Amino acid sequence: MSAVGVPFADRGRRTDEYLDAMTALWTMDRPAFEGRYASFRDVDAHPRPVRPGGPADPGRRAQSGGVPASGGPRSRLDRHRELARGPGGPSRRA
Q1: From CA 66, how far away is CA 57, in angstroms rounded?
Q2: Are 86 and 51 a contacting pair, CB within 8 Å?
Q3: Most buried of 12, 19, 42, 62, CB within 10 angstroms?
Q4: What pLDDT is attached to residue 67?
Q5: What pLDDT sits at residue 58?
Q6: Domain residues of the chain, as ranges?
Q7: Mapped to the 3 state alphabet, what secondary structure does the chain carry?
């Protein structure tokens, strides 16, 4: 991160804000966002993700459906298997 002038200590806050900004783009009729690292208004964000709210991201905060990083490798593996199965279907991988 230092190679592009971004303090390593800000990576978590910056990533969370970028994800919040993308969620605004994907979920709002007239997207607008004002943050420390990203700001926009009056934009047209299309095409939008097929999955409402955006693509799944297992590293995202628990409240958005992802698996928190503190969940450990076992819970992340279980979540990845769940995602691979899809909505109610059999797993594509054994």
Answers
A1: 6
A2: no
A3: 19
A4: 41
A5: 47
A6: 2-55, 66-94
A7: CHHHCCCHHHHHHHHHHHHHHHHHHHHCCCCCEECCCCEECCCCCCCCCCCCCCCCCCCCCHHHCCCCHHHHHHHHHHHHHHHHHCCCCCCCCC
Region 13-37 average pLDDT? 92
Cis peptide before 73 (omega within 30 of 0): no
Name the amino acid, one letter, at 74.
Answer: R
pTM over 0.90: no
Residue length of the chain: 94
Assigned token pair, 50: 């097929």
Please report, as a single letter, which amino acid is at residue 76. Answer: R
CA distances to 2, 11, 19, 46 from 50, rounded to whole Å, are 35, 28, 17, 11
Q: Cα angle at 28 between 23 and 29, to 5 degrees?
A: 150
Residue with tokens 């991160």: 1
